[in-house]
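Let's study my pick:
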Amino acid sequence: MAKDQGPSPLGQRPIPDLAGPNISKFLCDMGLPCHGSASGFTASLKSRLKPCPWAAIEPDMAKLYFNYSTMNAGKSTVLLQASHNYRERGMQTYLMTAQFDNRAGEGCIASRIGISDKADTFAPGEDLYVKLSCRLLEQKVACIFIDEAQFLEKDQVWQLARVVDDLKVPVMCYGLRVDFRGELFPGSAALLALADEMREVRTICHCGKKATMVVRMGSDGKALHEGAQVQIGGNETYVSLCRRHWRAAMNGEPIVG
C-alpha cells in the first residue's frame, strides 16, 4: 500500500504514488494513454503540456531613472562613478550632457571634486530616439547616462522613455528638480511624470537639514526673485537651502552660505 503523504504545502490532495500499477490509473485520470513504455508516456505528456504564458517573456531590466537634487549635491560625481562601475565590469556606457553647458569644455562632464569624462551632447529640438538608435547600431551599450537632464525638452524625455521601452536599454538621468524660484524645470517635470524610478541625491542646508531648494544671489548678497531660468556657470551665486531657510531668504533675510 502506498504511504499517505498527507496534504501538499498548497493544500491540494495528496501526491499520488506513481510506482507500479498506480501509473496506469494516473495516466487514465490525466486523459493520457494508459499503456506503453515510460518513454512513450514522456512523449505523450510533453505533447499535452502547454508552456506557461509567462515562460517566454524575457526579464526586462531596462528602466528610466531620474536622479535629482538641488545645486552642488554631487550629481555629476554620482553619474561618473556609476558609469565607471559599468566599465570596470567590461560593459560600455554612453554619456550625454546639454550642448550649451560648456563649463568643462565642449562635450565633457566634470565634477567639482576633479573627475571628468568625455560625453556627447544633446540640443533643443534634437530627436534623442533617432540619435541613440544610431549610436546603438554602432556599438552595444549597457547603459545611457544623461547629465543636466533638467534642460531636456518634454518631447525628448518621451524619446528617452521610448529608448527604454523599445530598445531595452536603461537610461539614467541626473539633474536639478527646481530652479531658484522654486519652480520645476520642464525636463524635470517630464521626468517626474515618466521615470520608472526616482532617486534623490542629497545635500544639506547650513542648518543641517536636507536642502531641497536653491537661491540665486544678486550682487548685494540677497536672493533674486526674477531672471532667466537657465544660467550656465556661476555656481558661487547659488546656495542650497532647506525650504524654511529658502522662504526666509526670499523674504529678504540674509543668506547663510
Residues 24-53 form one domain. The CA atoms of residues 181 and 226 lie 8 Å apart. The chain is about 30% helix and 15% strand.
